[in-house]
Design brief:
Shape of chain A: globular
Distance between the termini of chain A: 63 Å
CATH class of the largest domain in chain B: Mainly Alpha
Largest sheet of chain A: 5 strands, antiparallel
Helix content of chain B: over 70%
Oligomer: heterodimer
Distance between the termini of chain B: 100 Å
Radius of gyration of chain B: 28 Å
Radius of gyration of chain A: 22 Å
Number of helices of chain A: 5
Helix content of chain A: under 10%
Order of helices and strands of chain B: HHHHHHHHHHHHHHHHHHHHHHHHHH
CATH architecture of the largest domain in chain B: Alpha Horseshoe
Chain lengths: ~600, ~450
């Protein structure tokens, strides 16, 4: 009989269409009519007032724009682990009106005790642009009109158009029942969890829509955390013996799940068949990308307190975990870390996807640099990121080129999970400030939080973060969620001096938003800017599906290359910056 | 007098401590030292003692602030610089830690732990060129040679010199064969050299040994750790003793923890098992009752109680205990597995198979549970299903695998796949020999002979 006798007392993103005619487009070749059309089809961009050097890089504007939402964790002093972990946010254009709407996940009370559970909220973006270019950003809570009634103990959100009807759908994870909301295309959603076969009652965290088998339908990966139940609550304490939240190591990890989309509105659980059960961990973050450069989408999963996983797609419906052998699973000293959020992107412009993983305080967050074949180097020290992140517990994160200089920068939403020593005795002693890091030509990073504005000086309990151009002014904005606190909207003011390009892909038939496509923006004499079309990554959150690239001092674009999710490539020329373009499959040159 | 006041103004202040928010044991310990330091604010020893106490209670930020004041008061003292370096290491402020270790070594150049810590801090902060000669020098000291070889291996790897890295790292694991971190670094260098199988083996060792690190005698840091004798410290000591096989010592440490704080559920849970291992059923039961009364860690308590009852061959109550664990935590894989074994014992094979299925559904990587499921399916004559389950156990090819392969071979033979059976049995025998499992290899050979 097995007798495991002792356990540690663990303290522990309205498309503008540029189709068919753009290939080979040059200024001399294009007709006046086509130019006029192009002008109509691009989002107003270009000249904006330049900020002065002393202006903050970001301005917090949630309340001013009507994005009023406060997360409730329901803490009652029982130190239930889920209380500390939520919740997430999704940035997506649910009504296809060309601007990003916001879905905020609510948690509520674990021991509801008869009280009505709190609900998730959908805020419609009612952005207006006046003839003089003045933008007025306003959010309206449309939760009821949209028919959304997600009332479990919510954790995170994932976004993707699983039925290829051209409208982005929503998947909500929870400590409890997950929910798949089908976007009906008329401003409402329908709960299709049961018929879609993606229901789950265990503790799910981040999720990712991606097409791993290239059949043109988005599949779904759901990261799951640990086997906590209120009845099996553990008693943990902090270093001075005060009651505190347990480490996930006090519980057992729950295996993640992979659902294959059968293309008929139903998903099949292929977790075991795909080999996903061969490794487990307390999953918190998930991102899809092609890490070994074979053109097929892989997955990276961050685990809290255990080895992270790099699920390499074997192109036969199965995956193999190469996290350890790839060097992306542990610290350089061979220790698993308390990993939370993930940013995946080509920060050094060498054409492959690198990983930044936020970790718990005292460990430092880690930069894994990809050699293009799926071998990673832990570059946290030489990049300078270790030094900046040592005192923080990071959650939501992404590579965002906040100043549009072409080099992807980093944002990290921070907040502790255990009592912050200097805040002992204070209410909610888990507060930390968020951070911004500027990419110094792909070699090192400098922290620019101090210049980022007062919002970056405020210590809160940061968790989710979603990224996208919310006011359609050509730069990347951020929505940050706080555990048991208000959501924050950080509007980017930093990028006005530089040029940019936003790209939306349109692929029919199949995966309509081309999630998983690899987009390269070629520039003469400068490295190509590669971006993955995705909504996943970060922590418990979903970001804009549109691709944003900063072009620096020149709006010139040599060409845009798209490697579609099935591996086919197309190329468009004659595009210029400072606009949003939609590239429809079949309208470029092979 | 005027001079003294100015000196005091220039001194870093003592940290602000929310002592009222500390639990009693920590409050008592920190308050005492804080009062003395506050009363004698220019006494380096009094201030340093407060820093030590804060350090002992893992209050690294406050400890660092206090060490800084102690350093200002006693600029020539070694210990405040060194201990501050240790506190800063725990805060992952490696570059600053290196500065303090450097300062400490100027005062006491021969203190080996400080030399090792300086080199390690420089490595962690990315100062490879500064770390390298320090590790080279440390190779010459037997007590620091393993750390030096790991450090030099990691530096060589960071420079892309993987051949040299392997040489250093192989030496490191030869010196300290249970060094998980060294095996991990070795695996990555093997991978870089294209030696994938070697890399996989090294990763298996990393998984096996995990965070085990060679111990180093550090008399200065011992003055910090010696300051704690609270419940949590005793609990941690008890765990270490249990890991080391010292059951009596582990029990004593756990009881000491409970003497200081009887409400620590984990200590009671651990004592169920510790007393169980010493067959002191009554005391084990007493701690089970205590943890049930406290109301935390209940699934573990019921599970461990089930094991305890099983050891007494009280199968009925044991099954009930496992069911209680499962009622609280339906995904308690071990409880499902052990319940399955009791059901199997009662020859309730269908129910046993269902319990094993629950175990592997709850924890798919639970190999023993899957092995039991495979076995039970085989016993039920559901050979095709058994083959499916047992085939999931063939990787990784560690010491557990020979018996899984043997079971897989048996399943194939029973399914009429004689050639497949011989193939797997041959593989099982070979692997058993590789892992030194001679009895199992002999048993497989006997069956193979009959088959052939």
């Amino acid at each position: 009989m097995s007798s495991r006798w002792l356990r540690r007392a663990h303290r522990y993103a309205r498309p503008e269409l540029v189709e068919g005619r753009v290939e080979g487009l040059t200024t001399s070749a294009v007709t006046a009519a086509a130019l006029a059309l192009l002008a109509l089809l691009t989002t107003a961009g270009g000249a904006r007032p330049s900020p002065s050097a002393s202006d903050p890089l970001f301005v917090e504007s949630a309340a001013a724009t009507g994005l009023v939402f406060t997360h409730v964790n329901g803490a009652t002093g029982k130190y239930y682990l889920p209380e500390m972990m939520g919740a997430g946010v999704a940035l997506f254009d649910f009504d296809n009106d060309g601007d990003l709407d916001v879905f905020l996940v609510q948690s509520g009370a674990i021991d509801a005790g008869g009280s009505a559970p709190a609900a998730c909220h959908l805020f419609r973006n009612d952005l207006t642009v006046s003839p003089d270019g003045t933008r007025t950003l306003r959010f309206t809570d449309v939760t009821k009109q949209a028919g959304i009634s997600v009332r479990g103990y919510g954790m995170g959100a994932a976004v993707g158009d699983y039925d290829n009807d051209g409208y982005l759908d929503l998947f909500v994870t929870a400590f409890g029942a997950t929910t798949l909301l089908h976007n009906n295309g008329d401003g409402t959603f329908t709960d299709v969890t049961r018929q879609a076969g993606v229901g789950d009652t265990l503790w799910s965290t981040s999720a990712a829509f991606f097409d791993y088998d290239r059949d043109g339908y988005l599949d779904l990966f759901v990261a799951r955390y640990v086997d906590f139940t209120p009845g099996a609550n553990r008693q943990c304490s902090d270093p001075v013996g005060a009651r505190d939240y347990c480490s996930p190591r006090a519980y057992r990890p729950v295996p993640d799940r992979l659902f294959r989309n059968d293309g008929r509105g139903h998903f099949v659980d292929v977790t075991e068949r795909a080999g996903i059960t061969r490794a487990d961990g307390a999953g918190l973050g998930v991102v899809s990308g092609d890490y070994n450069g074979d053109g097929w989408l892989d997955l990276y999963v961050s685990n809290d307190g255990g080895a992270n996983q790099l699920w390499i797609n074997r192109r036969d419906g199965t995956f193999v975990d190469e996290g350890l052998i790839s060097g992306s699973a542990l610290s350089a000293a061979g220790n698993p870390e308390g990993s939370m959020g993930i940013a995946s992107g080509d920060f050094d412009l060498d054409g492959d996807e690198d990983l930044f993983v936020t970790n718990i305080v005292g460990e430092t967050s880690v930069l894994y640099v990809n050699d293009g074949r799926g071998n990673f180097e832990d570059a946290r020290a030489r990049s300078g990121l270790a030094r900046f992140t040592a005192a923080f517990t990071g959650f939501g994160t992404d590579w965002i080129d906040y100043d549009n200089d072409g080099w992807p920068d980093l944002f990290a939403a921070n907040g502790a999970v255990n009592i912050v020593e200097a805040q002992r005795g204070q209410p909610s002693p888990y507060r930390m400030r968020n951070q911004l890091f500027h990419n110094l030509a792909g070699r090192q990073f400098e922290e620019t939080s101090a210049a980022a504005g007062p919002a970056f000086g405020r210590a809160e309990t940061g968790r989710g973060a979603a990224f996208g151009d919310i006011d359609n002014d050509g730069d990347v904005d951020i929505v940050v969620t706080n555990n048991n606190g208000p959501a924050r909207l950080l509007l980017n003011q930093a990028a006005a001096r530089s040029h940019w390009l936003q790209i939306r892909l349109d692929q029919r038939p199949g995966n309509r938003f081309a999630i998983g496509a690899w987009v390269g923006v070629e520039r003469t004499g400068r490295p190509t800017l590669w971006r993955r079309v995705r909504t996943d990554g970060s922590y418990l959150s979903a970001s804009d599906v549109r691709v944003h690239v900063g072009l620096g001092s020149s709006a010139a674009v040599g060409a845009v290359v798209v490697q579609w999710p099935d591996g086919q490539r197309e190329r468009w020329t004659g595009l210029t910056g400072d606009r949003l373009v939609t590239l429809r499959r079949g309208t470029g040159r092979p | 007098m005027v001079f003294l006041s100015l000196a005091q103004i220039d001194l870093p202040p003592l940290p602000q401590l929310a002592l009222d928010a500390y639990p009693p044991a920590a409050r008592e310990a920190v308050s005492r030292a804080h009062q003395i330091a506050t009363a004698r604010p220019t006494d380096a020893e009094a201030v340093g003692t407060l820093a030590r106490v804060l350090h002992a209670w893992d209050q690294w930020g406050a400890a660092h602030d206090t060490y800084v004041r102690a350093q200002a008061l006693a600029p020539r003292a070694f210990e405040w610089q060194y201990l501050d370096g240790l506190a800063l290491q725990r805060l992952a402020r490696h570059a600053e830690a290196a500065g303090h270790f450097d300062e400490a070594l100027q005062r006491s150049p021969g203190y080996l732990p400080a030399r090792v810590k300086l080199a390690e801090s420089l490595l962690e902060s990315g100062s490879l060129d500064r770390a390298e000669p320090l590790f080279e020098a440390l190779r010459r000291e037997p007590a620091s040679e393993p750390a030096a070889e790991l450090g030099l291996g990691r530096i060589a790897a960071a420079k892309g010199q993987h051949g040299a890295a392997v040489t250093h790292l192989e030496r490191a694991v030869a010196l300290f064969p249970e060094w998980g971190a060294a095996y991990y670094a070795l695996a990555l260098s093997y991978r870089a050299l294209g030696r994938r199988e070697d890399a996989q083996r090294a990763l298996e060792r990393n998984a096996q040994y995990g965070p085990i690190w060679p111990a180093q005698n550090d008399s200065v840091f011992a003055t910090v750790t010696a300051l704690r004798d609270d419940a949590q410290t005793n609990l941690q000591r008890g765990l270490k003793l249990a890991d080391a096989g010292d059951l009596a010592g582990a029990i004593a440490a756990h009881e000491a923890a409970l003497a200081r704080d009887p409400s620590i559920a984990q200590a009671h849970v651990n004592l169920i098992s510790l007393y169980g291992r010493t067959q002191d059923w009554a005391r084990a039961e007493q701690h089970y009752r205590a943890v049930v009364a406290i109301g935390f860690n209940l699934d573990e308590a019921h599970y461990d109680y089930g094991v305890l009852l099983g050891l007494q061959e009280r199968w009925g109550p044991a099954a009930e205990a496992y069911r209680q664990a499962i009622a609280i935590n339906p995904r308690h894989a071990l409880a499902h597995n052990n319940l399955g074994q009791i059901l199997e014992r009662d020859r309730r094979f269908d129910e046993a198979a269902a319990a094993y299925r629950q175990a592997v559904d709850s924890q798919p990587a639970f190999r023993l549970g899957r092995f039991n499921l495979g076995r039970m399916l085989l016993a039920l004559g559901r050979t095709d299903e058994a083959i499916v389950e047992l085939e999931k156990l063939i990787q990784p090819r560690d010491a557990e695998v020979p018996r899984y392969l043997f079971a897989l071979a048996t399943a194939h033979v029973r399914a009429g796949h004689r050639a497949e059976g011989i193939k797997w049995a041959t593989d099982a025998k070979q692997l058993a020999l590789e892992h030194g499992q001679r009895e199992l290899a002999a048993a497989i050979e006997r069956d193979l002979a009959r088959l052939k």
